[in-house]
């Protein structure tokens, strides 16, 4: 059964709101909703100003009462689906996989199924955690980031792995292609929090937040870019992407934190890659049940390797 629609949200506009685009005003007044969602609900006739349904071009009226009727959440389920997995290790307690780019980790808005969780449930039972849509999930990689992930198969293993991640008792390293000329070696030690004006982004330019530490080493110089290895001391959302972008060296192909390059070789490599050039290359930890040291290292996938080769070629001329 589909979930019932959430209760409407009602706001009263002020004089300073008058004349501005209504979707822009509502995004400012109702930060719990993204502007994209508000625009979608406007198109669906779910937003009224002074009792009249509005359009995308409607301007805010001073003193008007606006009613927002959010759409019911998409139906989502963690049902088994026959999606191939690249399994690096598996026993009765956990499973380690090499996640391909393009695969979402768990069901959520915009991705009700076809996720890693759906694939795992088809392959084996995974359990643990309080969210039925994220059984066994201890950490995640962004949809367009490839690489090594561990998933719990039992609640007790999930609990122990969560403790290990919280205490940073793991080896975690990523390879990235960063624009420009990053330092040969440096450490980013910053605060980390959600961006104040863009809900999809995070930033280190804040006065309060969680500590985020990334150790960077330049592995190879490329055309207008460099292959870097980033070792995580902490594991915040988008941590590497934020640290590199705010240091002036965004990950090549990053649609959220990067920007289009004026360099034709770099722009072509990013376009052909079609995602951020980021790969979780190493995951090492002690088995939470047996204590056995485990370490997994995978090569970047073909699209990442193709981008690397394209950016190496100009250096050889």
Rg, nearest Å: 22 Å
Head-to-tail CA distance between termini: 62 Å
Number of strands: 14
Mind telling me which CATH architecture of the largest domain this is? Answer: 2-Layer Sandwich
The percentage of residues in β strands lies in 25-35%
Largest sheet: 10 strands, mixed
Principal-axes shape call? globular
Structural class, from secondary structure content? alpha+beta
Question: How many domains is the backbone divided into?
Answer: 3
CATH class of the largest domain: Alpha Beta
Task: Offer a concise description of the structure.
This protein has 317 residues and is α+β, with helices and mostly antiparallel strands. The protein has helices spanning 22-29, 35-43, 116-123, 155-166, 239-246, 264-273, 302-312, and strands at residues 9-12, 47-49, 52-53, 65-68, 87-90, 94-99, 146-152, 171-179, 185-194, 202-203, 210-222, 225-232, 278-286, 293-297. Strands 5, 6, 7, 8, 9, 10, 11, 12, 13 and 14 form a ten-stranded mixed beta sheet that branches. A four-stranded antiparallel beta sheet has the order 1-4-2-3.
Blueprint (SSEs and pairs):
Elements lengths: L8 E4 L9 H8 L5 H9 L3 E3 L2 E2 L11 E4 L18 E4 L3 E6 L16 H8 L22 E7 L2 H12 L4 E9 L5 E10 L7 E2 L6 E13 L2 E8 L6 H8 L17 H10 L4 E9 L6 E5 L4 H11 L5
Parallel strand pairs: 7-13
Antiparallel strand pairs: 1-4, 2-3, 2-4, 5-6, 6-7, 8-12, 8-13, 9-10, 9-11, 11-12, 13-14
Helix pairs in contact: 1-2, 6-7
